[in-house]
Structures are given as structure tokens and as C-alpha cells.
Amino acid sequence: MTSPRPGGPEASVVVLTLNAGPDFAATLDAVFAQKTAFDFEVIVLDSGSTDGTRELARARGAIVHDVPGSTFDHGATRDLGLSLAAGEYVALLVQDAVPLDDRWLAAMIENMEGDPLVAGVYGRQLARPGSSPLARVLVTNAPTAGHERREQYAGGPGRYRKLPPAQRRALALFDNVSSCVRRSVWEEVPFGRTGFGEDLRWGERAVARSHKLVYEPRSAVVHSHERGPLYDLRRHYAEGRLLVDLFGLAPVPNLARLLRNTLLASAHLCRRLLLDEKTGWRSPLLAVRHAVPSQMGLYLATRRHTLPARLDRFLSKGV
Question: Where is the Glycosyltransferase 2-like domain (predicted)?
């Protein structure tokens, strides 16, 4: 592995921050503790922190670049980080994701060194210690919780476009909570100014161009959030719009499916809460609290063109 810049590090880690707080020290310490057979740099893109995040990053040895908060975009800001990075392999990490061990970075890059078709790798996520039962269940039931490595490869643009929408979505899955991108592919397929869902949009374009994506569970981070019903509604509204735009996929296309999916999602979550978390009588309440707004968000996304503009703006905030 060589750096695209003579004398530069072979790999880079780019972290996006905004008032990351004192817990950011754990992220930085875990990143700098990585054991690799190559040199790597750490770049922090900060969008106007006032809590000492930038100073903490510099003190730990990171290169800090200021990004005006008004210009932040999930895709364009990551493009900026990649343009500043020296490595051929560039890991992307959010500020509150803590690498689980000292092999987080190497485990991702090994996949790309061994196969030139691999454009990007993303890793496993584990719930934070002390997380609520619902947060733990949501993390452990996500596609980024599995213990089996997955290769996502369609075999060519023609074959990919002929696949059913749900299968194309599965092949395009990518998650920038913790990921690594091959620079040469990024130069061909940048994230672009995208807003929400820059990782899935990039994954779709990469797979459509005959590249591979890999889910590597050996590369793991600790990352979870405590979310409320309003966030779940907005998040799934944004996700539903993205699925329609990218794949023509509408998981909740009508009221009958809304009722059915809400009941099924509630039952699944309730079962997991009862069996995995032993939450007893609280299980149905916790399950419904998440299932109802999530499925409603997906349903409203299919009707966005008929929604009042004010409601669309309300639903589009905060994700």
C-alpha cells in the first residue's frame, strides 16, 4: 500500500465533529491506539465547536480543519475530508463512535488490500454500556450487528439494474458511522452534496458501477443513541423518501400496510425486549413507542407530494 502523496501516510481517518464533549477523548484515544502495519493520519473536520473539541483533538495529535457550520452537508463535508486526506484508504468515523479494539482500522483495510474490486468497507456497531433496553434491541437488530462478513456485489451495471428494488437496496447498504473508502473509487464516485443518506446513496452508485462493498464485523465500534418518538418519525420519513428516490421502494405504501407493518414491528420488538432484555410488562409499551412513529414516517414519505409544505418542513428537520 502506498500513499497518493509521496512521503505521506498510507491511510487516513476522518472524523466529523460539532461540540463532541469530553467523551470525544475516548474516540480519539481508541483511534490513535490502532495497531497497523502502515502509517495513518487523523483529520478532524469541526463545524464550529465551542466546547473545546478542536483543542482536545489537536492535543491528541489530530489535524484539525474548521468547516463553517452553515456549509455543513453530510456528503460534501465528507468529500472535503477525503480531499484533505493523504491516504489511499480513508476511514470515516462519527464523533461518538468508539473503536472497540486496536484492530478496527486494519480489519477494514485488509478487505481492500486483498481485493481491488472493493470500494468500501463498513463495520459492526454495538450499543453503549448503560444503554436503555430499547436502544440495545434496535442496535442488535440492525444490519450492522451481524457477526458474519458480507460481500455486496451485483456483478455489473446491467445485472444490478434488473434486480428487484429490495435486493438493490440490500446490495447498496453502507454506513458511515464507521466505514472506509478507497480513494481511487471516491475520485470516480464522490459523495456529493446530498443531505441525509449520503452513505446509502454512495453505496448505490458504487455497486451500480461494478464495485464491491463489504460488511466487516471484525471492525467494530461502540455507538448507540437514546431517541424519542419525534426523532423516529422524522428519521423514517427521511429514510422513506430516500428509498423511494433511490430504488422506487415504498415499504409502507398505503393505510392497510401501515396497520400491518406497525403490528408486525411492534410484535417483533416486543418479543426481543421480553427475551433479550427481560423488560416484562414494559415491553409492549416500548415496542409501540418505536414502531408507530417509525412506520408512520415511512408511510408519510410515500405521500410527501400531497403533504402540506409546512408539514414536510417539520418532518424534514433534525436528521
Answer: 12-123
The span from the CA of 213 to the CA of 172, in Å, is 8
Neighbours of 271 (CB within 10 A): 13
Cell of 2: 502506498
Instruction: Note if the pTM is more than 0.85.
Output: yes
Nearest to 30 by CA among 100, 124, 87: 100
Which of 177, 198, 222 corresponds to the end of one domain?
Answer: 222
Q: Is residue 5 part of a domain?
A: no
Q: What is the mean pLDDT of residues 178-197?
A: 96
Q: Enumerate residues 6+ apart whose C-beta is below 8 A from 51.
A: 19, 20, 21
Neighbours of 47 (CB within 10 A): 17
Kindly report, residue by residue over 145-184, the tens digit of the pLDDT. Answer: 999 999 999 988 889 999 999 999 999 999 999 999 999 9
**Final residue before a domain boundary, out of 222, 256, 275:** 222
118 within 8 A of 213, measured Cβ to Cβ = yes
pLDDT tens sequence across 93-149: 999 999 999 999 999 999 999 899 999 999 999 999 999 999 999 999 999 999 999
In this structure, the answer to whether residues 40 and 111 fall within a common structural domain is yes
The residue range of the domain holding 242 is 229-315
Residues 45 and 167: beta-carbon distance below 8 Å: no
